[in-house]
Design brief:
Blueprint: H1 29-45, E1 47-50, E2 58-61, H2 63-67, H3 69-87, E3 95-99, H4 103-114, E4 117-123, E5 131-138, E6 141-148, E7 157-165, H5 169-180, E8 184-193, E9 207-212
Parallel strand pairs: 3-4, 3-7, 7-8, 8-9
Antiparallel strand pairs: 1-2, 4-6, 5-6
Helix pairs in contact: 1-3, 3-4
């Protein structure tokens, strides 16, 4: 997780019905219903920890999803359903890009499920060889993301994944790196969204979130 959370404890039900995959026809109502069911199941597994890692922060803990193989499968299935129904059979991602660090928890599994490659974007200084760098603003200063310069080929289609979108700065930086290497950015997929921070307004491609979190 690269963006901070809020201290407001209000939580919503999963937005599987409010934020369905685009392009669904009436014949796809079963898919929509499955997404809603999976979203509810995943939402109920989350835990919140007030004042972590510092006072005023309400931390959303997604780790219970990965300690239970059924929940892990539900997460990958939900993301798979969204991607396949949103983009259709003629468009598929060549690459899933995961952001450090929690995008690494499910990005490789999703890539394998979709028959795509996986590419990590890491903090500055963590990757060997030639890299491209992009900066993004944090609450106190700047941070930097890097990607290996040969990780994405010209014209490859890419979806970026991470656990949460808050302010959107880190995700936007990742998107700029993908495009700098010549990739075609199809969109972003997140487990959680802090809607009130309007992070998706910073992004240069459509964003999908499985669950709505704090308001």
């Amino acid at each position: 997780m690269t963006d901070s959370t809020s201290s407001d404890p209000a939580r919503d039900e999963p937005d599987g019905l409010e934020n369905p995959p685009l392009g669904l026809s009436s014949s796809s109502s079963a898919t929509s219903a499955e997404l809603s069911h999976l979203g509810l199941k995943l939402h109920q597994s989350l835990r919140q920890f007030p004042d972590f890692p510092s006072p005023g922060i309400l931390f959303e803990d997604i780790l219970p999803i990965f300690s239970d193989p059924s929940l892990h499968e539900s997460l990958i299935r939900a993301l798979q359903l969204h991607i396949e129904n949103h983009y259709g059979p003629k468009i598929k991602p060549d690459i899933i890009v995961g952001l450090e660090a929690r995008g690494f928890l499910f990005g490789p599994s999703l890539a394998l499920r979709l028959g795509a490659g996986f590419v990590p974007i890491r903090k500055k200084g963590k990757l060997p060889g030639p890299t491209e760098t992009a900066s993004y603003k944090k609450e106190y200063g700047e941070d930097y993301f890097q990607i290996q310069s040969d990780a994405i080929r010209q014209g490859q289609t890419v979806i970026i994944v991470d656990d949460i979108i808050a302010t959107g700065g880190s995700a936007a930086a990742a998107g700029s790196l993908v495009e700098r290497l010549g990739g075609t950015l199809l969109g972003y997929a997140f487990i959680l969204e802090l809607d009130f921070l309007k992070g998706r307004d910073q992004l240069n491609a459509p964003a999908y979130t499985l669950l709505s979190s704090q308001k």
